[in-house]
Design goal:
With 469 residues, this protein is mostly helical. The protein contains 22 helices and two strands. The two termini are 37 Å apart.
Length: 469
């Protein structure tokens, strides 16, 4: 919580640089003060011990929720947003959900635009990895907290310990952010727009400073630059770290990275063919297809065209890509390419075993390593939880709105994959009842934490209920 106060002070400084009044900015001071007070309270009231799995899951979820509550305050006091909408905006920011309830972005203060982008940048690799990098070192507490953000834990442990793993991730994160911002500035994008859009691109969050997003810049070159960095944001950062250190072959030979690039290329070709069949010029079709594929596969959610332009074929392809998502150890959402690839290999093994029973015991091998049964079970659990969350959220949406089931499912897939591509108008989104907005917030949080910490707490609650009977 004390570290969170620094996160709130930075938008204040930016606001002052751009001439915003102290009256407008004082909410950041109040928020920073509250976070400092809470930080000291938690530090002195907390019991210093190594938490178990349930406790680390509780810490993971609580940290996100506290960050959202505190992060929502500037939206309430500066923009006058209703509390539920402010919480939604903050949740969408920190989880990189990319859905906004602000109707006109061009009319809001610079400090709020920066806050939204900065939330996504901080949330990109997870608030917990940022906090624990400074607070813990190589303790079991740090490693358990790191594991609570499940998609980082499976591949990141290639580094000797937690601190080195986290440092490697953040080095890549900083390098990509600075590199993209610098390139955009060279392309005559303003410093503010360059920095904020680099935040939201590398974090695969997708927030923009403009209502029409990337189309505001009206530049094919800028679109292709953004597309490249969206793709990089969806690759395992440890592999990128190895590539930066000269070991490019590790990236090129990696099973997940190869699937990621292959699916991107295939989806780009399919979209190009679909757009061309609808009558678009081949150059425009290729441009939109490449950008859309990069945006969707990395779960960034930025588009360089109106979503209504897409046919049902492209929509179905987009939903599949959103479900799969990017790579383990990246900032993207979805079930992850590694899990999808493992599942495909498992299905292939099962099919082969039907003809040759002796092959039934063949192991699933990824990157020359045998995938343990407990890992396969975890993959199955995450996918089942994903599907259950999508259908539960869709059911709630249909019950409390006039939305049809298919649209509700499309929206929930986008929400849980933390993408932000909604298939309803901005006006309809703002008018959604509170229970649906809360459902979407839960979906974004569940997708960001990849279900497991939420499942642990749910099991604890059921056990508590059974014990009291």
């Amino acid at each position: 919580m004390k570290i969170f106060s620094a996160i709130m002070i930075i938008p204040l400084i930016v606001g002052r640089i751009y001439g915003e009044s102290f009256v407008t900015l004082e909410s950041y001071i109040y928020t920073a003060f509250i976070s400092i007070v809470l930080g000291f309270l938690f530090m002195h009231l907390g019991v210093k011990k190594h938490p178990n799995v349930v406790e680390t899951s509780f810490i993971a979820i609580s940290s996100w929720i506290f960050a959202v509550i505190l992060g929502a305050l500037p939206f309430v006091y500066i923009l006058g947003m209703p509390y539920i909408d402010a919480f939604f905006e903050a949740m969408s920011g920190f989880t990189t959900g990319g859905i906004t309830l602000i109707p006109t972005l061009e009319s809001i203060p610079i400090s709020i635009l920066f806050l939204r982008a900065f939330m996504q940048w901080v949330g990109g690799l997870g608030i917990l990895t940022l906090f624990t990098m400074f607070v813990f070192s190589d303790t079991g507490v740090a490693n358990q907290l790191f594991s609570a953000e499940a998609h980082k834990a499976e591949n990141v442990r290639t580094q000797p310990n937690f601190l080195k793993s986290t440092t490697a991730l953040w080095k890549v994160y900083l390098i990509l952010t600075i590199l993209l911002a610098s390139i955009l500035i060279v392309m005559n994008v303003s410093v503010f727009d360059a920095v904020t859009h680099s935040f939201t691109t590398i974090s695969t969050g997708g927030f923009s400073n403009y209502d029409n997003g990337i189309m505001y810049f009206n530049s094919v070159i800028i679109e292709m630059i953004i597309a490249l960095f969206m793709l990089l944001g969806g690759i395992n950062f440890i592999l990128l770290f190895s590539a930066f250190k000269g070991n490019l072959m590790r990236l090129l030979k990696d099973f997940e990275a190869r699937i990621y690039i292959l699916i991107f290329l295939i989806s780009s070709i399919i979209m190009t063919m679909d757009f061309t069949a609808q009558g678009s010029e081949i150059i425009d079709s290729v441009r939109i297809a490449i950008f859309s594929s990069a945006s969707v596969i990395s779960t960034t959610g930025i588009l360089n065209t109106n979503i209504n332009f897409f046919s049902q074929v492209t929509i179905l392809l987009i939903l599949l890509l959103l479900f799969i998502g990017g790579s383990v150890g990246s900032t993207s959402g979805g079930i992850k390419m590694l899990r999808f690839g493992t599942l495909i290999k498992l299905v292939k093994r099962k099919i082969k075993s039907m003809d040759a029973p002796k092959r039934a015991m063949d192991s699933v091998i990824i990157n020359n390593k045998i995938v343990e049964n407990k890992s396969i079970l975890k993959i199955g659990t995450i996918i089942v939880l994903w599907v259950a969350t999508i259908f539960l959220g869709s059911a709630i949406t249909v019950i409390y709105t006039n939305m049809d089931l298919f649209t509700a499912i499309k929206n929930m897939i986008s929400v849980v994959s933390t993408t932000g591509l909604l298939f309803i108008t901005q006006e309809s989104l703002i008018m959604l009842p509170a229970i649906v907005k809360i459902t979407y917030m839960f979906g974004m949080l569940a997708g960001r934490l990849e279900m497991i910490p939420l499942l642990v707490l749910f099991k604890l609650k059921l056990k508590h209920i059974n014990n009291n009977r």
